[in-house]
Amino acid sequence: MNRFSYFRAESVEGALAALAADPGAKLIAGGTNLLDLMKYDVEQPSRLIDITQIEGLDTIGETTTGGIMIGALVSNTTIAYHPLISAGFPLLSSAILAGATPQLRNAATAGGNLNQRTRCYYFYDAALPCNKREPGSGCPAMEGVNRNHAILGASEQCIATHPSDMCVALAALGASVHVAGPEGQRTIAMADYHRLPNGSPERDTTLVAGEMVTGIELPAGAKRFAEHHSYLKLRDRLSYAFALVSVAASLQMDGRAIGDARLALGGVAHKPWRRTQAEEVLIGRPADDETFATAADVLLEGAHGREHNAFKIELAHRAIVRALSQAAAGTPQSQSDKRIA
Ligand code: SF4
């Protein structure tokens, strides 16, 4: 690990000034990913800017438009169990509780969850090439062990997947990310916050240098999905594992027909994978397996498997159908009891 200095910011302005003064600096809050990256020599910050003491970023409250604002420093545990979230946006609670462990969820923050990095094995081994860690050095995952890698939206530079569960639910709920930076404040739609690798896999998000996340906003309209949702996460073991495939499904039911729908996948791409066309084919149709399979076909169009991950295409198709069935029936996937009925 390299030597670094430490600075505790007391305000957003102070954190931004410290970031601007040192391009090698990194923000730290829970540190549940950054400290690992530093120990593996993947990240070598010259300075850590501790933002945990900044007031006003650790609360959850209602906005003037009836939505919910989650401060960047709110822990994953607090979000999952907060009454405004569990009542109005239970899909988000379910997705968060599907991730990591209780100890990690206690420490990890909303902002850190958004900005966590891929768990590609090669990315974490500084002795190996990796285009995301060292642009232009190559991608050993292409011909290597790629069981956890992308089947959608990959590039010739990188086939890594985004690891978060929370972000898959945020994508389905149409959340937006509030950001502060040298040019002032701006809001980024969740769909645009994470990016596909294309020719620059070193960039995970559309944040620009010197910016920091201050909060996540959930729109009031997404409460209409509270009754019919499911977050289905499939993985190699039932806890403390990243998704092979996950599905965030939200429906608004109109009798047995689907009035409105939101659908996103995790574990399959460099960002939460959402296609509005897959949602459009659900609307106005009966909530049955044929409709769900059609949506899965659309959402997975263009999927491409490699030696160890081609199975994820069929797995994702089945998971989409199951998650939509659970959402329609109002029987969301339990994150503590995973038995298949
Ligand atoms: Fe690196 Fe991406 Fe290739 Fe993994 S998939 S080795 S992160 S370039």
Folded structure, characterized:
- It is built from twelve helices and eleven strands.
- With 341 residues, it is an alpha+beta fold.
- Among the domains are: 1-54, Uridine Diphospho-n-acetylenolpyruvylglucosamine Reductase, domain 2 (2-Layer Sandwich), CATH 3.30.43; 225-329, Enolase-like, domain 1 (2-Layer Sandwich), CATH 3.30.390.
- Helix 5 packs antiparallel against helix 8 and helix 11 (289-299) crosses helix 12 (311-329).
- A hairpin with a 2-residue loop joins strand 6 and strand 7.
- It has helices at 12-21, 34-39, 76-81, 83-88, 90-97, 102-107, 110-115, 166-173, 190-193, 276-280, 289-299, 311-329, and strands at 5-8, 25-28, 47-50, 60-62, 68-71, 176-181, 184-189, 212-218, 228-234, 245-254, 257-266.
- The mean pLDDT is 97.
- The protein has a five-stranded antiparallel β-sheet. It has a three-stranded parallel β-sheet with strand order 1-3-2, covered by helices on one side.
- The longest helix is centred in the C-terminal third of the chain and has 19 residues, at 311-329.
- The N and C termini lie far apart (48 Å).
- Iron/sulfur cluster is lined by residues 118, 120, 122-123, 130-132, 139-141, 149, 158-160, 201.
